[in-house]
């Protein structure tokens, strides 16, 4: 059974760096094709894909946020960490991590298992 | 940067059928965009419904189906149930492992 859980601060001050951790179980990020992504959702607004890291350490970022994001993995701890620099009130959102969908020997560009999300509020 | 557009809201009667669409600013959506669809209810994370255009997850009810329609990705809800009232999001692969969500469609069952 695949599960993911996000953790991190609830309140962050503007200009600080946000660090979020995704702790997962039920799969290994050392398996070929595996990946974990981050997605966020401001209150009352749409989902926004942020970043994706693969088993081979290949990393992809949203073009609009690339300069501020860093995604890393710790395979031994079953964790993926997302950092976002120079945080701003518009970054207030629920942040989700999700498992990249792989089945039947193929992997797809979607997410089949999601964490419950963690709300991050950016305010001074 | 690619913009993905969905209807903002749709209303359907119980037992009826409704089709949601997902368009790309770069042109026609094809299977190479690997369209995926998610359902989200208030206070919950998104629930995956469809992947790679028309494939259902093991938990996806049979009344949900995905397709390509007129240059767009489409999600059709048949025999709509009250519990289908939710926000629906499409996700497109835009090349180079870049992903883009649509703005969401709020489906009201009335």
Provide key terms for this protein.
heterodimer; A: about 120 residues; mainly beta; seven-stranded mixed beta sheet; four-stranded antiparallel beta sheet; B: about 110 residues; globular
List the helices and strands and how they pair.
The complex is a heterodimer of chains A (124) and B (110).
Chain A: E1 3-7, E2 11-12, E3 18-25, E4 35-41, E5 48-54, E6 59-61, E7 69-74, E8 79-84, E9 93-103, E10 106-114, E11 118-122
Parallel strand pairs in A: 2-11
Antiparallel strand pairs in A: 1-3, 3-8, 4-5, 4-9, 5-6, 7-8, 9-10, 9-11
Chain B: E1 4-6, E2 9-12, E3 18-24, E4 36-40, E5 47-51, E6 55-56, E7 64-69, E8 72-77, E9 86-93, E10 99-101, E11 105-109
Parallel strand pairs in B: 2-11
Antiparallel strand pairs in B: 1-3, 3-8, 4-5, 4-9, 5-6, 7-8, 9-10, 9-11
Instruction: Give the overall average pLDDT of chain B.
Output: 96
Topology order of chain B in helix (H) and strand (E) letters? EEEEEEEEEEE
Instruction: Tell me the number of helical segments of chain B per DSSP (H or I, 4 or more residues long).
Output: 0
Strand tally of chain A is 11
Strand content of chain B: over 45%
In N-to-C order, the SSE pattern of chain A is EEEEEEEEEEE
Helical/strand content category of chain A: mainly beta
Strand content of chain A: over 45%
Q: What percent of residues of chain B adopt helix (DSSP H or I)?
A: under 10%
Largest protein-protein interface: A-B, 23 and 24 residues
Distance between the termini of chain B: 36 Å
Description of the molecule:
The complex is a heterodimer of chains A (124) and B (110). Chain A has strands at 3-7, 11-12, 18-25, 35-41, 48-54, 59-61, 69-74, 79-84, 93-103, 106-114, 118-122. With 124 residues, chain A is mainly beta. In chain A, the strands form two sheets. In chain A, strands 2, 4, 5, 6, 9, 10 and 11 form a seven-stranded mixed sheet that branches. A four-stranded antiparallel sheet of chain A has the order 1-3-8-7, with no helix packed on it. Chain A is globular. With 110 residues, chain B is an all-beta fold. Helices cover 0% and strands 49% of the residues of chain B. Chain B is built from no helices and eleven strands. The radius of gyration of chain B is 13 Å and the shape is globular. Chain B starts with a strand and ends with a strand. The mean pLDDT of chain B is 96. Classes of the chains: A mainly beta (124), B mainly beta (110). The A-B interface holds A 37, 39, 46-49, 52, 58, 60, 62-64, 96, 101, 108-112, 114-117 and B 1, 34, 36, 38, 40, 45-48, 51-52, 57, 89, 91, 93, 96-104.
């Amino acid at each position: 059974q695949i599960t993911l859980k996000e953790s991190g601060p609830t309140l962050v001050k503007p200009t600080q760096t946000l660090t979020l951790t995704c702790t997962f179980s039920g799969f290994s990020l050392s398996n070929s094709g595996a990946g974990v992504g981050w997605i966020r959702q401001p209150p009352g607004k749409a989902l926004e894909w942020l970043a994706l890291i693969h088993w081979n350490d290949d990393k992809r970022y949203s073009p609009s946020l690339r300069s501020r994001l860093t995604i890393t993995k710790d395979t031994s701890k079953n964790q993926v960490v997302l950092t976002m620099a120079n945080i701003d009130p518009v970054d207030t959102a629920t942040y989700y991590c999700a498992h990249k969908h792989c089945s039947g020997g193929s992997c797809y560009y979607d997410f089949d298992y999601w964490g419950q999300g963690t709300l991050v509020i950016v305010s001074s | 940067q690619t913009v993905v557009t969905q209807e903002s809201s749709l209303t359907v009667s119980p037992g009826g059928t409704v089709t949601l669409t997902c368009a790309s600013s770069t042109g026609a959506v094809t299977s190479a965009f690997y369209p995926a669809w998610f359902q989200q209810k208030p206070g919950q994370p998104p629930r995956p419904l469809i992947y790679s255009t028309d494939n259902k997850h093991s938990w996806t009810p049979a009344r949900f189906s995905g397709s390509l329609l007129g240059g767009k990705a489409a999600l059709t809800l048949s025999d709509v149930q009250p519990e289908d009232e939710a926000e629906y999001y499409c996700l497109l692969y835009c090349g180079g492992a870049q992903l883009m969500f649509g703005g969401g469609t709020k489906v009201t069952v009335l």
